[in-house]
Amino acid sequence: MTTPLLEATATIPTGRRRPLARRAALLGLSLLAAFAIVGPLLLADPSAQDLSRFLEAPSASEPLGRDDYGRSVLARLAHATRLSLALSALCVATALLLGTVAGILSAWFGGWIDAVLRAVSEAFVAVPALLVVLLVSALASGGSLWALYLGLALAQWVEYFRVVRARSGLVLGSPAVEAAGLLELGPAHVVRRHLWPDLRPLLGTLAALGMVTSILAMSTLGFVKVGLQPPRAELGLMITESFPFYDVAPWMSLAPIAVLFLLTVCFLALRDSKERS
Amino acid sequence: MTDPRPGDDLVIHHAVVQHGTTTLADVSDIRLEPGRPLTIIGESGSGKSVLAHAVMGTLPPELVARGSMTIGAVPFDLADPTGRRHLWGRSLALLPQEPALALDPTLRVRAQVAEGVAGWRPRHPDASRMADERLARLGLTEVGGSYPHTLSGGMAQRVAYAAATIGGARILVVDEPSKGLDRHSLDRLADLLSAHVREGGLLLTITHDLELARRLGGDVMVMREAAVLESGSAERVLTAPQHAYTRALLAAEPSRWDFPWMRGVAATDAAAEPLVAAESITKSYGAAPLFEDVSLQVRPGERWALTGPSGAGKTTLGNALLRLTSVDSGSVAHSRATAGGRLQKLYQDPGHSFPRRVRLETAMGDVVRRHGVEAGRVGSLLEKVGLPHEILRRRPGQVSGGELQRIAIVRAMLPRPALIFADEATSRLDLATQATTMDILMTEVEDNGCALLLVTHDTALARAVTHHQVRLGSPDDVDIRSEDPVAVS
């Protein structure tokens, strides 16, 4: 019999191969989040100009120096990080909720509900995500936060919808759910005990990736000046604004780039370790 | 190194296989002669498969083998897994268990068989021709161009046999060939194995199927807990066993069962309202009809068996009766007594019938709450099926198949069912476990006055457990028979 063979191979602890990467990613994210939450409370107003201190170099009182209008780069960075994290978390949460509910409905009821939802999702897939955001932004007045939020959420829900629909189809067709039906345990049991435990790891991975996509999309739009408008502190905008001065004040462009880089790397590392565990 | 010649014996002088400090197999002096097959029988975990892999040199790396064997005059060290590699396919071949999983799903059957030809080169016409000849001899002319997933279990088994033996190996090790095969396919395989022996081959078969051991003849060895309990000629061991364990093993065959619930069956009331009434139902998949115009009524307390070869539509008919599958025409009516979760089903693979990532106690807790099961009933049922309550703290994947099936029985009993549909519920278990599991199930069925719908390909099991049989053959040949309850005295 295979039993002893299988048991022998099954008891070898596979373990988490990269606990260090996961811990580092969590630490990095909590530091950035703390900076984003506490920074704006303690630091100066990000739009307070002091033209006499224009392009001031970093010092003990002003660790990242001042920009071309004499605004504190550190204060602007804290506000920009808060904006990036909060807005992308909101977008991901909305897209996740919308996509998951639609995906489960589609797999559960099938028929015309499935057909309609699939058609809508395919229409979204056919248009590049950034174009969706641009279209929504164009409809709203320039640089509105709401337009950006709506655009990013709409561009992302399709991903959750497709994954959840495919996975739920498998789970709902399994003998375990058939048995639950014969035991008349009801839809709440099926969602709580069958669907949710199965979808949770997938959604975690997708959400970590979604955060990266949202943050990068937001700063990309800011960078090409179609997203949020100055004087708002935003990572992409800060990078563009600092470009003319890169030779005299490199700290101005390096600071937002470093934050963007750290955010991306941390979320990606988190996703990797989730996939392995 | 000299290769073994025809006519050589294989002798295992001594073989020990260990995993850590646990000994999985410890045997000595096993002789395999041309023309005299050797069959090792025993329950799951008795170490028989491990022994076969130790002979082949295909043990997983975490298992350690010690000992020696000789083929003819050539000695081999069992601790050295690489020393026998050059024999594989040429003189030593393994027919693995679950051939459907052993075959490469991305390779067509012909190419897969051709790979075993001596001196094989990619896309060489000679190898393909030999593979075709080989397949034709096994009655598989049609399947050369198909992929393994399109084959039935029996066909996949014969393809695996063709692939394993095309290299001309004289020593054939067959590991658990009966898993998931119906009687007819198993008979065909037994014929192939017997032909191999008649042509002067050496055959070592590992199985828990006593019927197969009987058909192959030769010698039989009974293993339990890593050691050989008894060995001798098949006629002697299988008719007049010396060891108590062998006697128990033989008694575990359904045809020899003698359980209290088999006797004194209360006459069921023919006038009672049927729990399930099917009225000329028909079902087909694509153009192929599975069954046509079947009518049958299951009354309270009746025990029905649906039998037939694999692919005959037994499970589909059972599902149709439970209204889990829609029918093409006809109707299935359920009586009021079946409302509220009082139709229950046991699955062939119980691992798939529980939520995979949730602890068993959580899953059971939902059932208890939904059906208002009185406190302590889960505990007392678990005690009756011989399981500790702590087992519920595990997840389904952490419990063995036999134990999980018993937990599935407990779960099915919680809503006090009027009818239980057991879909091949014991076909993946070994004989001894099958007997205990069936005994537990039928004791519960009898205590609760529950009706039973049993799907099985094992006619002996169907005869032992039920009084009414539906035999599915071809679509227009559905034989519905009610036997008088046989009183076993």
UniProtKB/TrEMBL annotation, chain A:
<feature type="transmembrane region" description="Helical">
    <location>
        <begin position="85"/>
        <end position="111"/>
    </location>
</feature>
<keyword id="KW-1003">Cell membrane</keyword>
<feature type="transmembrane region" description="Helical">
    <location>
        <begin position="24"/>
        <end position="44"/>
    </location>
</feature>
<protein>
    <submittedName>
        <fullName>ABC transporter permease</fullName>
    </submittedName>
</protein>
<dbReference type="Pfam" id="PF00528">
    <property type="entry name" value="BPD_transp_1"/>
</dbReference>
<dbReference type="InterPro" id="IPR035906">
    <property type="entry name" value="MetI-like_sf"/>
</dbReference>
<feature type="transmembrane region" description="Helical">
    <location>
        <begin position="123"/>
        <end position="140"/>
    </location>
</feature>
<comment type="similarity">
    <text>Belongs to the binding-protein-dependent transport system permease family.</text>
</comment>
<feature type="transmembrane region" description="Helical">
    <location>
        <begin position="202"/>
        <end position="228"/>
    </location>
</feature>
<feature type="transmembrane region" description="Helical">
    <location>
        <begin position="248"/>
        <end position="270"/>
    </location>
</feature>
<feature type="domain" description="ABC transmembrane type-1">
    <location>
        <begin position="81"/>
        <end position="272"/>
    </location>
</feature>
<dbReference type="InterPro" id="IPR050366">
    <property type="entry name" value="BP-dependent_transpt_permease"/>
</dbReference>
<keyword id="KW-0813">Transport</keyword>
<keyword id="KW-0472">Membrane</keyword>
<keyword id="KW-1133">Transmembrane helix</keyword>
<dbReference type="InterPro" id="IPR000515">
    <property type="entry name" value="MetI-like"/>
</dbReference>
<keyword id="KW-0812">Transmembrane</keyword>
<feature type="transmembrane region" description="Helical">
    <location>
        <begin position="146"/>
        <end position="164"/>
    </location>
</feature>
UniProtKB/TrEMBL annotation, chain B:
<feature type="domain" description="ABC transporter">
    <location>
        <begin position="10"/>
        <end position="250"/>
    </location>
</feature>
<feature type="domain" description="ABC transporter">
    <location>
        <begin position="276"/>
        <end position="488"/>
    </location>
</feature>
<dbReference type="InterPro" id="IPR017871">
    <property type="entry name" value="ABC_transporter-like_CS"/>
</dbReference>
<comment type="similarity">
    <text>Belongs to the ABC transporter superfamily.</text>
</comment>
<keyword id="KW-0472">Membrane</keyword>
<keyword id="KW-0547">Nucleotide-binding</keyword>
<dbReference type="InterPro" id="IPR003593">
    <property type="entry name" value="AAA+_ATPase"/>
</dbReference>
<dbReference type="GO" id="GO:0005524">
    <property type="term" value="F:ATP binding"/>
</dbReference>
<dbReference type="InterPro" id="IPR003439">
    <property type="entry name" value="ABC_transporter-like_ATP-bd"/>
</dbReference>
<keyword id="KW-0067">ATP-binding</keyword>
<keyword id="KW-1003">Cell membrane</keyword>
<dbReference type="InterPro" id="IPR050388">
    <property type="entry name" value="ABC_Ni/Peptide_Import"/>
</dbReference>
<keyword id="KW-0813">Transport</keyword>
<dbReference type="InterPro" id="IPR027417">
    <property type="entry name" value="P-loop_NTPase"/>
</dbReference>
<protein>
    <submittedName>
        <fullName>ABC transporter ATP-binding protein</fullName>
    </submittedName>
</protein>
<dbReference type="Pfam" id="PF00005">
    <property type="entry name" value="ABC_tran"/>
</dbReference>
